[in-house]
Amino acid sequence: MNSKKDFIESSIDSKCVFSGRLLTVYKDTVLLPTGNQSTREYIKHPGAAVVIPYLGNGNILMVKQYRYPVAAVMLELPAGKIDPGESPEETIRRELAEETGYYPNSLKPVCRIHTCVGYSDELLHLFWAGNLQERKLVADDDETIEIMEISTEKVFELVLNGQITDAKTLIGLFWLKEILRNPEFKKRFISE
């Protein structure tokens, strides 16, 4: 069996080829464990948080919005990037309020997700939000979002029909299904 060091690639040279408001793109030369050299292109991302906003009545909150890179209107769990100096918990509380107008009285970490390990270091923090209180919606001025309250039955139907394709949402909905059906998870996450 190979040890961890048999897989490690070492950076020889690293060049920033693009730096934007959200992403930084690098092109590195690396030394492979075999002694050969290769090139790695990758994106550095500040990280993000995503939430399963459970209303307690068998419904969840989702958002519908246009996503420019895929030129499509997507149905997603609320999410957003982590701002400098912000914890993932602070991020998801802010994003949930901005996107839905709801505030979670119960917020529990579910898991961490590396979204695209082949070309990005993005790490998503998935949370369960319960005991939600509706407050005034303070939306971002650069987003057009429709808030949707949707039953778990309907959302799983949309997944199986291929109408939800966003990876973070699919992973969050997998966890939703497990939390609702597994008594141990249900006890851990649903405390209302």
Please name the defining characteristics of this protein.
192 residues, Nucleoside Triphosphate Pyrophosphohydrolase, alpha+beta, 23% helix
Textual characterization of the structure:
The chain is an alpha+beta fold. It is built from four helices and ten strands, in the order βββββββαβββααα. Strand 8 (102-114) and strand 9 form a beta hairpin. The chain has two domains: 4-44, no CATH class; 48-112 and 127-189, Nucleoside Triphosphate Pyrophosphohydrolase. It is globular and about 60 Å long. Strands 7-4-9-8 form a four-stranded mixed sheet, with helices on both faces. A three-stranded antiparallel sheet has the order 1-2-3, with no helix packed on it. It starts with 9 loop residues before the first strand and ends with a helix.
Short recap of the structure:
The chain has helices at 88-100, 152-160, 167-181, 183-189; strands spanning 10-19, 24-31, 37-44, 48-53, 59-67, 72-76, 79-81, 102-114, 123-134, 145-151. The protein is of the alpha+beta class. The protein has 2 domains: 4-44, no CATH class; 48-112 and 127-189, Nucleoside Triphosphate Pyrophosphohydrolase, CATH 3.90.79.10.
